[in-house]
Amino acid sequence: MHPRQISERVSWLGVVDWDRRLFDSLIPLPDGTSYNAYLVQGSEKTALLDTVDPAMADTLMAQLRDVPKIDYIVSHHAEQDHSGTIPLVLEKFPQAKVVVTPKAKGMLIDLLRLPEDVFVSVEDNETLSLGDKTLKFIHTPWVHWPETMVSYLPEDRILFSCDFFGSHIATTDLFVTDEGRVFEAAKRYFAEIMMPFRAVIAKNLEKLSGLDMNVIAPSHGQIHRRPAFITDAYNEWVHATPRNLVVLPYVSMHGSTQAMVDHLVNALVVNGVRVELFNLVVTDIGKLAMALVDAGTIVVGTPTVLAGPHPLAAYAAFLANALRPKARYLSIVGSYGWGGKTVETLSGMIPNLKVEVLEPVLCKGMPKEDTFQALDNLADSITRKHQEQGFA
After folding, report:
1. 295 lies in some domain
2. Do 229 and 271 lie in a common domain?
């Protein structure tokens, strides 16, 4: 794909990766992704903002074929899908300097084996003149690594946000055209990599709130010409209280846990509590992560396998612990054949969750009337807790 103009002497360079279906050997990409780099040509200096994944380096280098010079390569984030082609760009433009935060310098030396003298470190709110265009660098740590920053181009009112405000979508549309599609993709993206760092992201949102932004240009997905669309979404995901929602990941081996889950779901729905159910045998973990953004309560459904939780249920607990959602309550339901330590094992896997653990419901073999009554009691307890918290 050829370079595409965003504004005068500001261009998108990048690659649309239609076929990629997994990121970091972990994150599903049902809609592919893009790797966005940007070229800013001032009257005196030229800056390349980020690069692309090394697997797509040929496309970026072809886009740079007719660029006469690059003075600066701005690396907002050291992760290789953005930084990995920097060595090739430096081969073509050996006079270029790599502009980074102080923390990113060491990380890029480790990751890419770049020489120390190629770097220019910039402090928070430092500016770099390109002549008639200026880049202002704003440190945004933990979006989503500790070294990250964004760049603001005041003359064009463009924020180059790297992973901040991004989404994994492969499309020929340079700008956002379908806000519904982008909202879902951006929420998935936030849930999978940003949610654990909500407190720091809240501070970064505040730092950016005073900027006069006309465009937000992230490093994945489409460019936002209505910045409030994505900044409002982030403020909601970061600051809003949990919803009147139970997220219920589960697995069932012989039908006992399935019967318990079905009964609990029905009891919650009768009580006016919304439920999102995830059969872990077939679940897209990105969908589960998205649901956790809003969850008021998490209930894990699992049979006991070799005295502990089913490995898929353990994985769901580990995932929730890593993502650190805002949920206030957690419980466990499931069945066992002769005994075990399912509750103790799962409880020990969630130290990062600031939740109240509600009375688990476990049964031996198939559930009986007393089990169904205990599930009704759990549904009533969740409903009461949500009402007390004002979850809507």
Report:
1. yes
2. no
Q: What is the DSSP letter of 193?
A: I
- To the question of pTM greater than 0.90 for the whole model, the response is yes
Tokens of 264: 């609990």
Q: What is the per-residue pLDDT across 4-60, written as a single tens digit (0 to 9) for each? A: 999 999 999 999 999 999 888 888 899 999 999 999 999 999 999 999 999 999 999
CB 50 within 8 A of CB 36: yes
For residue range 83-111, list pLDDT tens digits in order. 999 999 999 999 999 999 999 999 999 99
In a domain, 87, yes or no: yes
Structural domain includes residue 109: yes
Q: Interior CA angle at 191 toward 31 and 232, to 5°? A: 95
> What is the rounded distance in angstroms from the CA atom of residue 220 to the CA atom of residue 226?
17
Listed as own residue / partner, the contacts of 261-264 with beta carbons closer than 8 Å and 24 or more positions apart are: 261/301, 261/333, 263/367, 263/372, 263/375, 263/376, 264/299, 264/333, 264/361, 264/375, 264/378, 264/379
How far is Cα 3 from Cα 9, in angstroms, rounded to an integer?
A: 11
Please name which of 148, 232, 140 lies closest in space to residue 186, comparing C-alpha atoms. Answer: 232
Q: How many CB atoms lie within 10 A of CB 348?
A: 11
Q: Are 134 and 111 in contact (CB under 8 A)?
A: no
State the Cα torsion 70-72-76-78 to the nearest 10°. Answer: 80
User: Are residues 273 and 148 located together in one domain of the fold?
Assistant: no
Show which of 239, 267, 286 is a domain's final residue: 239
Task: Report residue 331 as tokens.
Answer: 């419980």
d(CA 267, CA 265): 5
Read off the CATH number of the domain in which 273 is found: 3.40.50.360
CB 250 within 8 A of CB 261: yes
Q: Can you tell me which residue has the tokens 């490995």?
A: 311
User: Same domain for 275 and 289?
Assistant: yes
Q: Phi and psi of 117, rounded to 5°?
A: -75, 0
204, 239, 274 - which closes a domain: 239
User: 315 is written with which tokens?
Assistant: 């994985």
Domain with 347 in it: 245-386
Same domain, 231 and 320: no
**Same domain, residue pair 354 and 263:** yes
Q: Quickly list H helices, 240-284.
A: 256-270
Sequence-ordered list of residues with C-beta below 8 angstroms from that of 392, at least 6 positions apart, any chain: 243, 244
